[in-house]
# Entry
Amino acid sequence: MFYLLHLIMLVLMMSIGFVFAFLAIMERDLLKAVVFSAGQAAAYVIVYYLLMSPDIVLAYAAIGVGIYSAVMIIAIKKTERYEKV
Amino acid sequence: MIELVKTILFFIGMGLVGLGAVFDLIGALGLLRFPNFFVRLHAATIGAIGGAVYPLIGVALMAPSLESFGQYRWYLMGGAIITALFIVLAAPTGSHALARATHRAKVVPVEPKVVDHLEEDRG
Amino acid sequence: MNLESLATTYVIIIIPVFLTAFIIYIIRAVKGPSVPDSVLAIDALSYDAAAFMIILAIYFKSPFLIPGAIILAIWAYALDIFVAKYYEKKELGE
# Structure
């Protein structure tokens, strides 16, 4: 019973991360792609929590949600927002 | 006497966790159903404050009765209280900054509007 | 029934409500017509994930993953400020 609940949470969060990663790759608006990437990081933080790895939780929350988004938004501001076909 | 106080705090904490879960569902439904960005801000506030701060305070009140944690139950209580304090400070600030930037950059039209003095002042 | 097993049973009842709310936030973040809608949904999702992690600490009976919730709440706030600074047409850090 308990293992079934673990498995449901793990599969749900990994599916959410997969959907966000797919959308972040296919999106033409790069600012929206950065926001989707932050959502993928927030879903994977819970995945790593369920897999019981505290150091990866700490590093992934800081880098995936915060620093990566900051660097990418600075890069988008310096260049241009919409991807050319 | 101490045991009685701990038990009462435990049941108050259980009530707060359940209330937080219900608020979380209400905030998510509001965020899905409302028509406009400036209207959705209300539902997002319920989702952030009601859905995150209430369960954290509830866990902090439930923590002294959890004997299997040993000494680490005070660690759980402190972590829950610090996270709740930070979310109380951070969530309204972030929502306000985002709403101000959206209104200034005119990304979304202000839809149910009678008068907008802020827009008139900026010209 | 002592308080420990009562707490574990109660948390097992609470967890599906949080998962349902997560799915609805995801729908709004994917559908969102403009970028601030998506940012708002991701923001509320991250705060609720921080609360969900501390509730899961009762379920797993292990307290050593608590600091991850604090870190996640802090950096989810930073994402709001970055996008707001982008729309305000100012440099980051000014």
Summary: The mean pLDDT of chain A is 88. The two ends of chain A are 50 Å apart (CA to CA). Residues 23 and 36 of chain A are 7 Å apart (CA to CA).
